[in-house]
Specification:
The chain has 149 residues and is mostly helical. It has helices at residues 3-29, 35-65, 72-82, 85-129. It has a single domain, classed as Methane Monooxygenase Hydroxylase, Chain G, domain 1.
């Protein structure tokens, strides 16, 4: 497979990944999260990442087989000599975009988790303060006065 075709395939897969990451970001930013849809996106994202990894492994293999050094410098040189440097640069740009979106989504997940923890702590604290007795009335709690007298 030619380097041009490999880079084109990588760009298409990166584009699809970026679209999924944008959908994921929208779901994470919504007031109410659609857990089923988020799980579906995570599954599709995993599949796309595996395919992207396979393409990248093949590209690196071709790069080495053609005698270019491993790493970004060798990849750039291979693309330059194959006449597809612009394709390589677009591939790198899409990779950076996917990385940026994935990082942003991770931050959104962290924010949501923090909100959920605070909400659960509040609910737990409120539940401890309103313990009902056998009569169905709120029992007196330590540190609180009994207003039912």
């Amino acid at each position: 497979m030619s380097l041009v075709r490999l880079l084109d395939e990588q760009q298409q897969r990166l584009k699809a990944l970026v679209e999924l990451l944008e959908q994921e970001r929208s779901l994470l930013a919504a007031a109410e999260i659609d857990g089923k849809r988020l799980a579906d996106i995570a599954e599709h994202k995993q599949t796309r990442l595996q395919k992207l990894e396979a393409t990248e492994t093949l590209r690196q293999s071709v790069q080495r087989r053609l005698g270019y050094a491993d790493g970004p410098a060798g990849a750039r040189q291979a693309a330059l000599e194959a006449g597809c440097l612009d394709d390589w640069e677009r591939t790198l740009e899409r990779t950076r975009e996917a990385h940026r979106l994935n990082t942003l989504n991770g931050e959104l997940v962290t924010l949501r988790m923090g909100q959920n923890k605070r909400l659960l702590a509040f609910i737990h604290q409120a539940a401890e303060k309103t313990v009902y007795g056998a009569s169905g009335r709120v029992a007196a709690q330590p540190g609180r006065f009994n207003a039912s007298v």
